[in-house]
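seq:
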Amino acid sequence: MAADGDIHIRDHVLYELARDLSSSLELDAVLRNVMDRVISLMHASRGFIVLVDPVTNEMSVKMGGGETDTEKSRHFLGSKTVIDHVVKSGQAVVSTDASLDDRFKGQQSVILQNLRSIIAVPLVTKGKVIGAVYVDNPFRAAIFEEKDKEFLQAISDLAAIAIDNARQYERSEFLRHLFERYVNKQVTDYVLERSVPGTVFLPGERREVTMLNSDIAGFSTLSQRMPAQELVNFLNKYFGRMIDIVLIHGGNIDKFQGDGMLVVFGAPNPMDDHAERAYEAAQAMVQEVDRLNGELSGDGLPTIAIGIGLDTGEVVAGHVGSDKRLEFTLIGVPVNNSAYLSKVRPPRVLMSEATRDALQNKVSVVDYEPMLLKGASEKQPIFQLEILEVTTESS
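struct:
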């Protein structure tokens, strides 16, 4: 580089780069920012950022720039000997003319591409080489000096930190999304927002909720008639549709129990309209089962019917378990009552008086026979959604 690589200018450049790199946690954006800066500052024809896969330890080009098209930028076109040396040794390399350099002049890539000026430095973070930054100029010799190697290393040190941060962020987001496939997003957010280092158990909280429990009628018989893989495929298809409905209506899936599903509206996040949301979800679930039955009939498979129970009241939401395994769960009478109502046969949608009252007469229901529910000393009024009655045989 020319004399304009003054130390003050370079310090300012490093400051700007550090500021820019700290503004993004997207790996591609970080790599593009570094590559563009390096090509410009080093007056190189082209450049590559090579990263080591943390799992396989294999090297691959993650970003290319300069005089190389998009397709070529995905492949390393420089000296493989140089890049291998830098990554394995952790030592930077500068060559004023690789075609005359005893270290590289016999290498195939140097000969075929007539490589001249080369500079490559390792990306090091936490004492580990995670890749390298490489730039070259196939046409001009002696455009890089020893001080350029030091400057590029300073850039790479900043880049390594930013790349590591971006990778850690990608990893944490991947784990978060993976976690959300096993635990509802509401619970994920609830736990993450309240957890601090050293926290194991979160305190329990009382919530006014509406519980929804669903159960497939005659599932034991159905499961015995289906081959194992067909049964799993059927459940995945069924639950896939039911889960979408629950999530659309803001419910939190507490647990799956074979063919049954326990859902809460109002925990861990409180909501004023939990009864209405639960009712609308129940209605949509039965309608979706009707659509699913049409498909099953068309495929020559047996149809299904589901029972749904709704109960409204106070529950305690919190962690239960040990420091080795925890589960966010709900404890309270509505949990048991909703499960009990879902197993009434023939299957139908039944709700407690508490749920009917919480809906404030907004829905059409008919009286069902009173039942002795959990925690009650005498039979309680039970109501059935008139429009959703299912009349299949009991299991």
